[in-house]
What we know:
Distance between the termini: 56 Å
Helix content: over 70%
Radius of gyration: 24 Å
Amino acid sequence: MLLYPFWVLLLGAVSVFAVARYTRRSGTTLFVCLLFLVNAMSVLVAFARFTEPASVALLKGLLLFEVSRLSVLASFVVLVIFGVGAIIYVPLMQEGNIAQGSTSLLLAAFCAVGSVLSKDPLSFAILLGGVPLLVFVLGRLEKGFSGSPQVYLLYFIPSVMLILFAAVARGTAPVSGLGPISKGAALLLSVILAAYLLFWPFGGPSIRLLPFGRNAAPLAVSVIAAVAFFGLVKFLPLSTMLGLAMVSLGAVSAIAWTIMCYRSKAPVSTAQHGYFAQTSAVCVMIACALSAKADSSGEWFLILSNHLIAGFGMLLSASWGEERRGRYLHVAAIFFAFCFLGLPPSPGFFGRLHLFLGSFGDHTLFGYLLRLSFLVNLFLVYCLPKSLAAASRDAETASKTPWWVVCPLGVLAAALLLSMLFLPHLRAYLAASGL
């Protein structure tokens, strides 16, 4: 019964697809969309009578959901945003895209409500990842999505204010116990982060789904920002020193990314934009995981190091001129982009599994796989001198890597790997011996 809004939206997506394919009329499709959205909202209103959170597990406990008054209010706000978006966009859809566009709209609402009702960071991350993906499909179908940043404020500000008011009034936000100045600074930081953080799966503003893009969708920006803000308030450990440091580092990179996007007009700088955007997302991901699991072995440092190294290598690969691009340069760029996006078997992939799944039990295997996969970053030892030499337009030096550069970097990388591998055992030995 608690998952009833999910099934309403899922059934609505199937029904809308069938109606749109059969009728090919935007008016009928819009009516069916609003019918299922209003039905889901009415169910959420019925759930608002809960005084204590009610939990439910799906897929053998991997996906956990919790229904409370706060999550019901946030879900209601998200569905209202989707309703407004349907009223605006469905009548403007081309006849051949009505079925795919309206179905993507309801499936995105399905993922957004699921992420709001999620009980743990893993469920939140899995379901929220489907929102920008589905809205991206919607934006690719309809190239008429355009607008200025002021348009998104009409969607974003009311959503954030309602969720913020409910969180602080009920004392459920982690920042509710702080002083007035600290509380205001932390909430402002959360709003800034929520506006820019969760676009990293697309690698930067080249997807044109951002407020300053040519084909931006206000629906995507407003929903993702509102849901992301709710997740930040719900999961981030702003009261701990490490969590606050990770969030602060993410905020700095997010703001730097935004400034670069506004100032730069060159397509080559897309990789730099994505680098700053991913840094903020990685920091917030680590902070979310640390809120559920006390990390004592330093995996968070290894994941952050992998991100910085892979991003640095990707930028170096992109810095080579077209006249110097050969087979090796293309392989290097693909390799670092592979590690940067966290695809298996890169350190980013095993690191995320270790942090998130470690919250549900002992997953030391992922920790060892993370350390072993970190060896792929040794490829940077070979790329760095070639990149520096190519940047100085010295082709002869670029063709040969000097030993005095390779040896120190190799020793440093090996020492970092060994220290991270044996540091937990060394700490346990020192604690047992009383030293």
